[in-house]
Specification:
Chains: A alpha/beta (383), B alpha/beta (596), C alpha/beta (372)
Number of helices of chain C: 14
Number of strands of chain C: 5
Distance between the termini of chain A: 44 Å
Strand content of chain A: 5-15%
Largest sheet of chain A: 4 strands, mixed
Oligomer: heterotrimer
Shape of chain A: elongated
Strand content of chain C: 5-15%
Chain lengths: 383, 596, 372
């Protein structure tokens, strides 16, 4: 190891000065442009609040119409079971037509029909309970059906406990949800939220500001200065990298203090994987904008290749394994997929090296390849 | 290495570059151009639109590669080592992309930082740059809120934060007023003579070319001539004359007739006379038959650069004359006593800043009224108020008897407006634009078709009718904008700096049209930076800092100029004198007020 | 009046020409909705088709084999490992090799034969608790069928009640059936909003807006001339999505196209209103674009597209009332799947009309205000 000679050191210092000048310029533009603030600050905060407080896949207080066609004691008891369940908000009817009308008008989400011959059939062990749901919201409908079965099972258990001759059934499923005992959808929405915010700032905002320079012709004069291409890239990446990390910090704070999502992994692993993902996102943004050189086209492409996939194809909301093979193959190309896996594991499971190492490696490889491409595509040439 | 003192700062041999348009056309931007810029001199590239000036300068800046040929800048092969060149030169693109959300000072600092200018150097240079550009009061203003000309000056200041070995300037003075242009040239000349700087610039102001040591005349990618400006001027030796219009005839009327004469290469109004250049070997004008030269008394004049340039250009374009004569379908019934525009005490405040400050003037029907003034004088603001685009803070204004801002929409039927920058739909073709504006003005059916045909014919746009208007060459964009504004046969035409950045040929054509329109009763109100263009006007008002400083006929205005040694004072001399006098008085007032 | 109509027509024609003339912008307007529709159709489903699971069978009895065989035969579950020791269990979940681990206790078969409740432990990976819940409900269904058959075969007094599910309009409860009709609204809103906001901002940035204002156009006419083309393009995009839904995904269309397009038009009017309002605020194209995204994002999240509105807290449920997308999704789903008529959709129609009126008049006011 020898100390760098004098000219090299002077060159490096000049380089650092130029990068710093570009960063300062970028920072001033960021602070003054309301639209940068809108994307970089307002939108993440809106997302955090909406995701934290508003969005939930948990189905509670389902409005159902319970149709009790003949009030036998058993039937009444069963109907009462729905009233006891925390999941249901029943309204009682004694015939189908009014209940159906309510379902049609979407004033209830389902109908529980206890037929008039319920008592008679039950005595011969062949009673039926009909559940009618509106399938236009398929996921909700299925969950309602599941809850209804649960309510019936509990009713059976109560009867069994009273020795009324109805057994609890041979096989009883005992469900345990690891990492999320309370079955709280915040637990997986908050990590997903981080992916969205990082993608938004990293890829979307960067693509826009880079394309803006091409569009407004600000690069032409900048090119004919001692500034090198890599310095322009650094001047663009560093401010948005910092902003992305601030966004991450905001999400983490909100996750911990507002929504009480547990964090079981180690902080430095989270930091490392977030930085890697941010670099990947930044490089994608830079690449797209140098290829398109137009804000509108860049925003459309960025939306299509980074943001929407981060929502739909990352495994944050929808299960990747259930997608058709062709779509699943696409997901392997998406950095968000690996980041979601890392986040979900680090948040809820802990430092599971079997998950962390491969995903980090893939992200690292992507970061290197994309940075290289971004560097190649940013040449100080017009047209 | 090759960095030892080269013979030429820029040396190019047989440079070729072709572009492919979207329409499949192939454009030869540079077709075997060789050039040389000697150290310590100013070399100017002059030529009409599409001559290849910008392409050449961009190549020298290392932003583009030539298809063929060799280009060495400061002795370095620029195609092979663009960065080494870029680190040593200063470059100002035609459209200097300022960061609009940074202030004037921050833009300047950014470029100073990037060029590694030390604090001591900044202390020396900033005050001078501020003085030159008159941007001193605006250092804290966001660049996006500067007027067009001020932006241009700031771009120049950003380029000049560093005094490099070679300065490349691509049309540095487009849209810059005469005062600032003078200051800018003083700085450039001082840098060249004092510091041995080399400058390569392109310009469409031919009086600027006259100040350069070396001139290269380009036309459609080919070099027409090179050498000292006097060599170009010499081409018109013995062929330049001054002619006096007959009694009751306007100089611009005579000029228009002269331009139609096949024996005349060029004619422009100048100081109430017409300057003309005759064709070589033509018959003696005094013996000519019924042509325009007949009966004129011609006084021989010393040829200037522009004369020689026009000789070259007319030779290159062949026999076709300068177009632009035009006839209206329906001449406006002219009653010269009728007042078309009346403005009294018009004021517009932006915050506490008075952009327009108690301005009053009248325009009569069929007149050409010119509004002159430096950048930021309030010309465009006045225009926008006249057209109803901006509300006045105070005062009264009437256009064709109404205030357009409050009048019914149909009142706007009577005016046409051509904005400062091209503002038609770039994606739409020439015909589609015309069709849209015709419909917007309520034309339809046969009349619409006739008017569009008229516009295509009068403005010679027929061949380009299918081209997206955004891809038109500069001069044609300007024609199209004017055609669109004339479709509905307005009585009054507003033109905001229509000739800014246009080449001399295009400007002559433009003014022929304006003259023809005025002759047929159309009232024309125009702003311009080219002071010689004020000669075409019937009345002129000189504005600065929101106020009208002088009003009158061009002859009256000219009289206010300081006497010049060895030549008649020009419009520009008068303008500079008027503005400087007013500014001097204003600062004296401030001092007096401060003392009181 | 007639003059004004002609002017509006000219502006509409010009807008359409400017938008659709350039092949690149034509592609960027028409292709993304179709691609997104395809991707969403395949990806955006809560239905599971492949659940990897591991088994810790401590009983190894015919009964446990029978139950597991049913799981394997369901077409959804596939067994990735047979575990021998309980210690191996966490690895499979932690490292995401299995979504579930099923644990069969030692005395499983014995308890069954005695008529006692035989517990079946299901441990699920809760990192995505929704997926886990859906998988658990699949298991419940398999177990229920097993129970019924076991009771029949062993003649034991089983659970006396069978729950019979019936689902209207979507017999197999496929998420896709619900998702794709709602994309008709979602995908068109994004582009319509953006297109409108950008078109005014572009005119302003390029100076053509001034040129328009010096012509006899009245501000109202300009607004109408900007509204119609955006709506038309929105309708075209919606049609494309509908075509994909019917020709590619083969989701049966139950309602009437007239009803659907009537609702859509009202929705697009509201979306254009928001776009115009944004363009009145924005100074540049960039701002118009970014503001559109900032507005669009909450609209999508609060539309009920991915998470049910009824699961939101009260305040947010109220906020969704101002979201035109919410109504559009409801209308699209109900017309498409339920075949609902205009009368039944009335509760969804009038709020959109109000949104359209409010945003359009706000935009008109802002336009006049900005021109001052």
């Amino acid at each position: 190891m020898t100390a760098p000679d004098q000219p090299t050191r002077r060159r490096l210092r000049a380089k650092a000065r130029r990068v710093w000048a570009l960063i300062r310029k970028e920072w001033r533009q960021m602070v003054r442009d309301p639209s940068s603030i809108a994307i970089g600050v307002v939108l993440p905060v809106i997302l955090i609040l909406l995701y934290g407080y508003g969005l939930s896949l948990d189905v509670k207080n389902v409005k159902v119409a319970v149709v009790l066609e003949s009030p036998s004691p058993q039937a009444t008891e069963l109907a009462a079971g729905f009233q006891l369940s925390p999941y249901f908000e029943p309204r009682f009817f004694n015939s189908m037509p009014p209940a159906q009308e309510l379902l049609l008008q979407r004033n209830v989400d389902g109908i529980v029909r206890i037929r008039s011959d319920f008592a008679r059939h039950q005595s011969i062990g062949d009673a039926q309970l009909q559940i009618v749901v509106n399938g236009t919201d398929a996921n909700r409908a299925r969950i309602i059906q599941g809850y209804a079965q649960g309510a019936v099972a509990q009713w059976g258990a109560r009867l069994g406990a009273q020795g009324a001759g109805v057994s609890a059934g041979p096989v009883v499923v005992q469900n345990r949800l690891w990492f999320n005992e309370a079955n709280d959808s915040h637990y997986f929405l908050v990590p997903g939220l981080i992916v969205l915010v990082m993608t938004l700032i990293g890829a979307f905002l960067t693509a826009m500001v880079m394309a803006r320079e091409w569009e407004r012709g600000t690069f032409e004069a900048l090119f004919v200065t001692p500034v090198r291409s890599d310095e322009i890239l650094l001047g663009k990446t560093i401010p948005y990298f910092v902003q992305g990390m601030v966004g991450l910090g905001l999400c983490l704070l909100a996750g911990k203090f507002l929504f009480h999502v547990p964090f079981r992994g180690s902080m430095w692993l989270l930091g490392a994987s977030s930085m890697l993902y941010l670099v990947v996102a930044l490089a994608i943004g830079l690449l797209i904008s140098s290829l398109t050189r137009s804000q509108f086209v860049a925003s459309q492409i960025t939306l299509l290749v980074t943001f929407l996939p981060a929502v739909m194809l990352s495994g944050f909301l929808f299960d990747l394994r259930s997608m058709p093979a062709a779509v699943r193959l696409i997901t392997y190309l998406l950095p968000a997929r690996y980041y979601v896996a890392l986040l979900q594991t680090l948040f809820l499971a802990g430092d599971v090296w079997g998950v962390v190492v491969p995903n980090l490696l893939v992200l690292g490889g992507m970061a290197a390849a994309l940075l290289f491409l971004a560097r190649l595509s940013t040449t100080k040439k017009l047209a | 290495m090759t960095d030892s003192q080269p013979d030429a700062a820029v040396l190019g041999r047989q440079i070729r570059k072709t572009f492919h348009r979207d329409t499949g056309e192939i454009v030869h931007a540079l077709d075997g151009v060789s050039l040389e810029a000697r150290p310590g001199t100013i070399t100017a590239l002059v030529g009409p639109d599409g001559a290849g000036k910008t392409t050449l300068i961009r190549m020298a800046a290392g932003l583009m590669r030539a298809d063929e040929g060799e280009l060495r800048v400061l002795g370095i092969d620029v195609a092979a080592h663009p960065q080494r060149v870029q680190s040593r030169i200063g470059y100002m693109p035609q459209r200097f992309g300022l960061y609009e959300d940074l202030t004037t000072q921050e833009n300047l600092d950014l470029y100073a930082d990037l060029h590694g200018i030390t604090a001591a150097q900044r202390q020396e240079r900033y005050p001078r740059l501020m003085e030159m550009t008159a941007l001193g009061p605006f250092v804290d203003r966001l660049a996006g809120r500067l007027s067009g000309g001020m932006k241009q000056k700031l771009g120049l200041a950003c380029t000049l934060v560093r005094w490099p070995e070679l300065l490349l300037l691509d049309e540095p003075t487009v849209g810059v007023d005469p005062l600032s242009r003078r200051e800018l040239w003083e700085i450039i000349e001082q840098l060249v003579h004092g510091q041995g700087l080399t400058v390569l610039l392109s310009t469409s102001y031919l009086d600027e070319a006259q100040r350069c040591g070396n001139v290269i005349v380009l036309h459609q990618g080919k070099v027409l001539a090179r050498g000292g400006p006097q060599e170009v001027s010499a081409l018109a030796q013995g062929r330049a004359f001054l002619a006096e219009p007959g009694a009751g005839q306007k100089a611009r009327g005579l000029q228009a007739r002269l331009l139609d004469d096949p024996n005349v290469i060029d004619a422009v109004p100048q100081g109430g006379l017409v300057r003309l250049v005759k064709k070589n070997g033509a018959q003696d004008p005094r013996q000519a038959g019924e042509d325009a030269l007949a009966g004129l008394i011609l006084t021989p004049a010393e040829p200037i650069f522009e004369d020689g340039f026009m000789v070259l250009l007319r030779r290159a374009v062949g026999e076709q004359g300068i177009g632009g004569s035009m006839t209206l379908d329906r001449p406006v019934v002219a009653d010269a006593s009728e007042m078309v525009v009346t403005v009294r005490d018009l004021t517009r405040l932006f915050g506490s800043f008075a952009a327009v400050d108690h301005v009053s003037f009248d325009v009569h029907r069929g007149e050409i009224f010119g509004l002159l003034g430096p950048n930021g004088a309030g010309k465009t603001t006045t225009f926008r108020m006249l057209c109803g685009l901006l509300a006045a803070t105070g005062g009264m204004l009437q256009v064709a008897g109404v205030d357009l801002r409050h009048a019914r929409a149909s009142a706007r039927q009577r005016i046409g407006y051509v904005a400062q920058k091209f503002s038609l739909y770039g994606q739409l073709s020439v015909v589609e634009n015309l069709d849209f504006f015709a419909s917007a003005y309520g034309l339809r059916g046969g009349r619409k078709r006739r008017r569009i045909d008229w516009a295509l014919e009068q403005f010679e746009l027929g061949a380009l009718r299918r081209l997206p208007s955004g891809q038109l060459p500069g001069g044609f964009k300007q024609r199209l904008a004017m055609a669109a504004a004339l479709l509905h046969e307005p009585e009054t035409l507003f033109l905001d700096e229509p000739t800014s950045g246009a080449d001399p040929l295009a400007r002559r054509e433009f003014w022929r049209r304006i003259t023809a329109l005025a002759e047929q009763g159309v009232t024309v109100i125009i702003t311009t930076h080219f002071m010689e263009e004020a000669e075409y006007c019937d009345h002129v008002a000189v504005m600065d800092a929101g106020r009208i400083l002088a009003q009158g006929t061009p002859a009256e205005i000219r009289r206010r100029a300081q006497p010049q040694a060895g030549r008649e004072p020009t419009m520009e001399d008068a303008f500079v004198a008027i503005v400087e006098q007013a500014r001097g008085a204003a600062s004296a007032d401030v001092k007096a007020g401060g003392a009181a | 009046m007639f003059e004004a109509l002609l002017r509006i027509l000219a502006l509409t024609r010009k807008e359409l020409l400017a938008t659709l003339k350039d092949p690149r912008s034509r592609v960027s307007l028409l292709l993304p909705p179709i691609i997104q529709c395809l991707i969403f159709g395949y990806a955006a489903t809560y239905d599971l088709s492949d659940v990897p699971y591991a088994v810790l069978d401590q009983d190894r009895s015919p009964a446990s084999h029978e139950l597991l065989a049913r799981l394997d035969g369901s077409g959804v579950f596939h067994r990735v490992a047979n575990l021998d020791r309980a210690q191996d269990l966490p690895t499979y979940i932690n490292q995401r090799r299995a979504l579930l681990v099923i644990q069969v206790g030692q005395d499983f078969q014995r308890r069954l034969q005695l008529g006692q409740a035989a517990p079946l432990q299901v441990i699920a990976d809760g990192r995505n608790s929704n997926t886990a819940s859906v998988a658990a409900s699949y298991i419940a269904a398999v177990v229920e069928a097993f129970n019924a058959d076991w009771n029949l075969a062993h003649n034991q007094a089983g659970p006396s009640i069978r729950v019979v599910g019936r689902s209207w309009y979507n017999p197999n409860l496929e998420t896709r059936w619900a998702m794709i009709p709602s994309l008709v609204g979602t995908l068109t809103m994004l582009q319509t909003l953006l297109l409108t906001a950008m078109s005014v901002a572009r005119e302003r940035e390029q100076g053509t807006f001034d040129q328009l204002l010096v012509t006899p156009f009245r501000p109202v006419e300009i607004m109408i001339g900007k509204t119609l083309p955006s709506m038309l393009i929105g309708e075209i995009q919606a049609t494309n999505v509908l075509l994909v839904a019917q020709l590619w995904f083969r989701i049966p269309f139950a309602g009437s196209f007239v009803t659907l397009y009537a609702g859509l038009s009202l929705f697009l009017l509201a979306a254009v209103g928001i776009g115009l309002f944004l363009s009145a605020i924005a100074a540049t194209m960039q701002q118009a674009m970014l503001f559109s995204f900032v507005v669009m994002m909450p609209c999508m999240l609060l539309s009920g597209l991915t998470t049910p509105i009824s699961s939101m807290p009260k305040a947010l449920q109220d906020a969704t009332l101002a979201n035109p997308l919410r109504y559009a999704i409801e209308i699209a789903q109900r017309v498409y799947l339920e075949g609902a008529g205009l009368g039944r959709l009335f509760p969804d129609l009038w709020p959109m009309a109000i949104i359209a009126v409010v945003t359009l008049s706000a935009a008109a006011w802002m336009f006049r205000h900005r021109l001052q």
